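re: ur question from yesterday

yeah so i grabbed the chain u mentioned. its 158 aa long if i counted rite. heres the sequnce exactly as i have it in my notes:
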Amino acid sequence: MAETIQSLEELSALKPDAPEAPKYEQKLDGLGRAYATGKRKDAVARVWIKPGSGKVEINGKELDRYFARPVLRMLIQQPLVVANRTGQYDIRCTVSGGGLSGQAGAVRHGLAKALTHYEPDLRGVLKRGGFLTRDPRVVERKKYGRAKARRSFQFSKR
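ran it thru and got these structure tokens back, copy pasting raw so excuse formatting
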């Protein structure tokens, strides 16, 4: 039969030890690069990073040529800025699907995941910044009897 506990010290002695936080290991391919896949809306980005001078290549083009809008370039650089790794990695991406905004979000997501594969210690910083979470918002489908997903056809009394 179970023993009765007389004090709080005895109660704390019975409590099992808390499980340790998982230890993440570096994941590199044969060429010393870290790889990750990022997604946003309909866009999918495959990202490879390796130590270098900070060159960013997307679908064979430079960052400034592929993403002409400064806002999209800033969006992609956010994980590097938060982790204080600007200009330390060469980044190579292939992006497909979606529009430019979704593609920039996919590259940002993939870059943050690749950074955690290369430097597992950055996971906490990037997680707090919200860069490792895949944005689940996608376009709502069109419904029958409607002009678009929610918009009705114009109503006329006559």
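noticed a couple things. Helices lie at 8-14, 63-66, 70-82, 100-118, 123-129. also The chain has a mean pLDDT of 91.
anyway ttyl
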